[in-house]
């Protein structure tokens, strides 16, 4: 019972790994910033992580629990347009709202940060430069819809048209809400720019890709070791095996947008990193905003 628990640890700020102790770093999925958090957000990831953080602290394990808002991407731009705000103003509003909600629920974050910080830019660009130097990036051409009236390439959420499968007239550039099929925006019939209602044209544009096939052999060897030693669920193993069975494909990591981490490479400086490349790095940058010794948590497998 409670009487048998050891006394609580003396609080330390910042919490850093301690040699010879069990050091536990806990994160929960970064909530997207363009809406009000609801019970599903709390129950789906934050509450379970908080429960484990509290358990870890009761066990006197040296525990750091971080999270934060995921703030880049087209959904933020779209919501900002709807609310008549800049993307940064929208993020500032909803970050504060998220922080207040989690504080009201007494979620025991050691630090609740965000992805729109100088640390995020620095770390994401550094990882990009390392990938580039080691030959893990490719250049290729994609065809995208471009609105000449707005002078911009249209991300999926900025275009709608007729579904090529079922004929629904208000299909989005990524999916049809009527038949549920996924769509490539250039496949839409009668496409329209959602910003000015002009007719976009298909235009080629250069992008950067992660050369995932080059890493496939190393990844398979690593997976075999961790599957043997780790606690992977059957579902996670099945999905991963399916990806490998079909062969990994190069993955685009850039977008023709303005709201995001800038790409630090000549020829691509008018682009930003795709949010699925950028957002996971948020776990590192949020920790880096908590302590300048963040690498002791993220580059320290012995502890």
TrEMBL record:
Q: Which GO terms describe its biological process?
A: methionyl-tRNA aminoacylation
Provide the alphabetized UniProt keywords.
Answer: Aminoacyl-tRNA synthetase, ATP-binding, Ligase, Nucleotide-binding, Protein biosynthesis
Q: What does UniProt give as GO cellular component?
A: aminoacyl-tRNA synthetase multienzyme complex; cytosol
Q: Which residues form the Methionyl/Leucyl tRNA synthetase domain?
A: 24-301
Catalytic reaction(s) noted: tRNA(Met) + L-methionine + ATP = L-methionyl-tRNA(Met) + AMP + diphosphate
Keyword presence, Nucleotide-binding: yes
GO MF annotations for this entry?
ATP binding; methionine-tRNA ligase activity
For this protein, the record's InterPro entries field holds: aa-tRNA-synth_I_CS, Met-tRNA_ligase_1, Met-tRNA_synth, Methionyl/Leucyl_tRNA_Synth, MetRS_core, MetRS_Zn, Rossmann-like_a/b/a_fold
Q: Name one Pfam family in it.
A: tRNA-synt_1g
- UniProt superkingdom: Eukaryota
Similarity remark: Belongs to the class-I aminoacyl-tRNA synthetase family.
Classification via NCBIfam families: metG (TIGR00398)
Q: Which PANTHER family match?
A: METHIONINE--TRNA LIGASE, METHIONINE--TRNA LIGASE, CYTOPLASMIC
Under what name is this protein listed?
Answer: Methionine--tRNA ligase, cytoplasmic
């Amino acid at each position: 019972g409670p009487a048998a628990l050891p006394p609580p640890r003396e609080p330390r700020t910042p919490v850093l790994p301690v040699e010879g102790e069990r050091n536990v770093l806990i994160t929960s999925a970064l909530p997207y910033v363009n809406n009000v958090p609801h019970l599903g957000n709390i129950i789906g990831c934050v509450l379970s992580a908080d429960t484990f953080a509290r358990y870890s602290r009761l066990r006197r394990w040296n525990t750091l629990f971080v999270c934060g808002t995921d703030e880049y991407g087209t959904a933020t731009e779209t919501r900002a347009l709807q609310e008549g705000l800049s993307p940064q103003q929208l993020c500032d509003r909803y970050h504060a709202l998220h922080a207040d909600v989690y504080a009201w629920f007494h979620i025991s974050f050691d630090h609740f940060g965000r992805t729109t910080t100088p640390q995020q830019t620095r770390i994401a660009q550094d990882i990009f430069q390392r990938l580039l130097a080691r030959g893990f990036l490719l250049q290729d051409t994609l065809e995208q819809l471009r609105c000449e009236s707005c002078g911009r390439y249209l991300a999926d959420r900025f275009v709608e048209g007729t579904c090529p499968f079922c004929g629904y007239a208000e299909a989005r550039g990524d999916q049809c809400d009527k038949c549920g099929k996924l769509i490539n925006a250039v496949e839409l019939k009668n496409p329209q720019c959602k910003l000015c209602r002009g007719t976009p044209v298909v235009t080629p544009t250069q992008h950067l890709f992660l050369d995932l096939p080059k890493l496939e052999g190393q990844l398979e060897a690593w997976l075999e070791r961790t599957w043997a030693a780790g606690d992977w669920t059957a579902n996670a193993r099945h999905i991963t095996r399916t990806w490998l069975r079909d062969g990994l494909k190069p993955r685009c990591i850039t977008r023709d947008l303005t709201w995001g981490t800038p790409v630090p490479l000549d020829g691509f400086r008018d682009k930003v990193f795709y949010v699925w490349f950028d957002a996971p790095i948020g776990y590192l940058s949020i920790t880096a905003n908590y302590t300048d010794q963040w690498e002791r948590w993220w580059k320290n497998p012995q502890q």
